[in-house]
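DM from R.C. (forwarded with permission)

"hey, sorry to bug you on a friday — could you get me a structure for this? deadline for the figure draft is monday and I only need the backbone to look sensible"
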Amino acid sequence: MNRSFRLLAPAFALAAFTVPLSAAEKGKPNVLLIVADDLGWGELGIQGFSKDIPTPHIDALAKGGVRFTSGYVSGPYCSPTRAGLLTGRYQQRFGHEFNPGPNPSPEAKFGLPLSEKTLADRLKPAGYATGWFGKSHLGNEPEFHPQKRGFDAFYGFLGGAHTYLAVEGGAARNSILRGTEPVKDIDYTTDAFAREAVAFLDQKRSEPWFVYLPFNAVHGPLEATEKYLARFKDIADPKRKKFAAMLSALDDAVGTVVGKVREIGQEENTLIFFISDNGGPTASITSGNGPLRGYKSQTWEGGVRVPWIVNWKGRIPAGKVDDRPVIQLDIFPTVLAAAGVEAPADGKIDGVNLLPYLTGEKAGAPHEALFWRFGPQIAVRKGDWKLVKAQGARTEKDGKEEPSTTEGAHLYHLTNDIGEQNNLADKEPEKVKELATAWDQWNRDNVPARWLPGKRAGARKSATESVTDTQSVASPKGPWKSGDVVEGTDAPNVANHGFTVSAEIEPFAANGVIVAQGGAANGYSLYLDEGKVTFALRAGGTLSSIVARESLPEGRHKVEAQISADGAVKLLVDGKLAGEGKAAALLKRQPREGLTVGSDGKGAVGEYKAPYQFSGKVENVSVQVLE
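My reply, with the result:
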């Protein structure tokens, strides 16, 4: 391990740091909870890795408070970690393991279960004014709206992603809302969310408040105004330049809101948290994770370890760096303790009150272990040791939804190997057994996922079932997305023609069908096999398979297969040639089975077991027939 990567915390020798922390002793404290979107652990100036994007306002929060260098979230993806954040519980306890479906949701009941009480639900009866400004991603239906989940005010959007420059989010009904009403215009979402939070603080300055500020920055799409782009004229890479502008805008927004807290004289009475919802998807937006292995959507450190800062001027130490593992679930009980609100009597909260650890009253680790489950990916961290199954560290034979188990997991010593490069599972079998036992015991209290990515758990759609809620969902012309089906008679006429099939994908597993048309006797499919883009074509029962030379890098990509009239096949990834070959023949007859996106329906075209479900995002699928 490169020792320069270790961020060692000074010991909390804070016996003399004794300040009252109860709400009764100095009134109820305000709470400001700031969440960045897809911000990697390696970004921010204070983290010490990326040097090209100054973040003075966020850095100031760390310099005035405590920065946890082993700060985690309970999943590597957007919606699940937000569900855990607002409930203080591992989201696997109530089935919120994956993102809800696309917005608008094709299923009405995707969302944070109504059985769960949010942090706002707990604070509002204690006299708090509650405001939510930014992204939701916890359900699109009316019952999941923030103002039905304990929040007095809402300004933001309900879906998982949104353009920064317009009120519409690229999908029907995903508008920027004030309460439940769409706003007419917007300049830049990052600026707007900060302004709305500031206005709320002005209105509520005479009462205790809880502001939840989940920005959509720095999640894609990469969009910024000239004001922020002009700051980074020296960055040549256009993708990195836009990312830099977006992060700079986020930093300014944090400074704007914290500045208002200071202006209204509430800095010493405001508990502030800053975290990211998951690690950075470096390939798609350049959001870096420093020395950590992996990215968003993976249970490697790069997917679940995030910037993690807590600030409370005069109440907790300033400028401290703490390497003890904490998790976003801890924010819930920490806030309740600071506010003098009793924790739920049922004892189901998984988070830990961090206040005594922040002041030095307690010197040990807040948690004996931390746990993750994300489909077949799992992890447990106990002390310096981590047991993990993630992309590249597990076996996927069938590509279907695999069980979550510790079998075959890798073992790493994070203090000596923060980059998770040296698998010690064979050398430390007893440690593997210890961590596997702990994970199994934790997992016994979890429930199955209530839905799988893009669909409800257990649901299977054949090519003869209509899945469209509106005509545009799976129209014959496309483009299509995961879960769409086109009937055989309406599917592209590929018989005796060359054609091109393309898609935009963001996988979190190494196997699965992107798009398929036809079946085991006649048809084609574009899929991932051990991370490699593969095109299979069956003509009269004869199978031809063309495989990319290298595995697909993590992140979002455009993949394409081109088959010409002479049977020559080219595979492209992000516009670059990734593999080529020749099919034995073109399809001589039109496949009777229809087109399916994200699975292969009932009949397998390639050498895999149908439906060979794709785990991740599949969007903008198109098939162009060559005349």
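R.C.: lifesaver. The chain has twelve helices and 29 strands.
me: no worries. The radius of gyration is 25 Å.
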